From TrEMBL:
Presence of keyword Chaperone: no
The keyword Methyltransferase is annotated on this UniProt entry: yes
Organism of this sequence: Schistocephalus solidus (Tapeworm)
Pfam families: N6-adenineMlase
Compartmental location: Cytoplasm
Highest taxon in the source lineage: Eukaryota
GO CC, any one term: cytoplasm
Principal subcellular localisation of the protein: cytoplasm
Keyword line: Cytoplasm, Methyltransferase, Transferase
GO molecular function: rRNA (adenine-N6-)-methyltransferase activity
Protein name: Zinc finger CCHC domain-containing protein 4
């Protein structure tokens, strides 16, 4: 991607797939090595006991525990980390798709949802799925960079996605699970391009989960599994969509209510603010309205007339921890 320095106005090209140049080079080397060796490694490992088969996420290689374990100890390729949706969240998404009458799902960076739809929905209803992801370790997908819209294997990737678009019949939807702290503007450009291609080549009605501008943030917690910093009960990740919120029912077990003013479901701990004209609580206890800021704020935060912001960590750094807000 082409970046511009804010002060010097100098233009530079940087990797759109990884945060550091080192991770980019490491992935290129690993993917090349993986593609060259995976066939012979797989054939060899098939002859070994299952307990002796190992896989290194850093090197993208299969190996025998008895032979190559010492060479891969300590490897931890953070840039290639996959964080998976929890089973509860997957069942919730499938229920939403079923209620909306979705027949085609394009998964962008959501491999577990793709596998879940392929494996666990055959007996429930007919759904066609396709996966776009940058991770070369996956199968049954097209390798795709969601920030610049690039297919790594242009001929086969474009042909596969075009075949999927042409086979779409009925309601279609794009579901995207982007990396944390991703740049939204290029992401939306790539997703909009996919949406237009899907509408042009496919048939039926198109339901969008992402589009500029994003209109709604649903209050339902997105939960994950196998993540060292994840706790199901305190997830701050939410679902963004431009679908009508009233059409998306809350997950089972969530104490929810329907807000007539907002025309959407929300948690019982998310009361409607008549001044903001919205259900404003995003996470934690109910927010309270701050007249000075003309918006709702988390409870426990006090407005400071000196800086015009709320007391907290950054306020303490600027004005001292013991200073009382005025």
């Amino acid at each position: 991607m082409l970046f511009e320095e804010k002060t010097t106005k100098i233009h530079t090209y940087r990797c759109a797939g990884f945060r550091t140049a080192r991770a980019c080079r490491k992935d290129a080397e690993a993917c090349t090595s993986y593609r060259l060796k995976r066939m012979t490694s797989a054939l060899h490992l098939c002859t070994l006991p299952q307990g002796d088969r190992c896989y290194c996420h850093t090197c993208n290689l299969l190996f025998a525990r008895s032979v190559g374990l010492k060479d891969h100890l300590g490897h931890n390729f953070v840039s290639g980390l996959q964080i998976f949706f929890s089973l509860d969240w997957l069942n919730f998404l499938v229920a939403v798709f079923h209620d909306l009458g979705v027949r085609n799902v394009l998964c962008v960076g959501a491999p577990r949802l793709f596998d879940f739809l392929r494996i666990h929905t055959e007996d429930k209803y007919d759904v066609t799925t396709f996966l776009l992801d940058i991770d070369a370790r996956l199968v049954f997908f097209a390798q795709f960079n969601m920030l610049n819209g690039h297919f790594f294997e242009e001929d086969t990737g474009c042909a596969a996605i075009s075949t999927f678009f042409e086979a779409c019949n009925g309601r279609s939807i794009i579901f995207c699970d982007p990396p944390f702290s991703v740049m939204l503007q290029p992401l939306m450009v790539a997703l909009t391009s996919l949406m237009e291609s899907m509408k042009k080549n496919g048939t039926g009605e198109f339901l969008r989960y992402f589009k500029l501008p994003i209109r709604h943030v649903l209050p339902f917690q997105v939960t994950y599994e196998r993540h060292c910093h994840s706790n199901r009960r305190v997830s701050i990740v939410r679902l963004f969509t431009d679908l009508p919120p009233k059409d998306i029912r809350p997950p089972p077990g969530l104490e929810s209510q329907f807000c007539e003013d907002c025309q959407r479901y929300s948690s019982v701990d998310n009361p409607h603010c008549d001044i903001c004209k919205a259900c404003t609580t995003l996470h934690g206890p109910p927010y309270v309205h701050c007249n000075a800021c003309s918006r709702c704020r988390p409870p426990g935060r006090v407005h400071c007339n000196t800086c015009g912001r709320y007391t907290g960590f950054f306020h303490a750094l600027l004005y001292g921890r013991r200073q009382t807000p005025q």
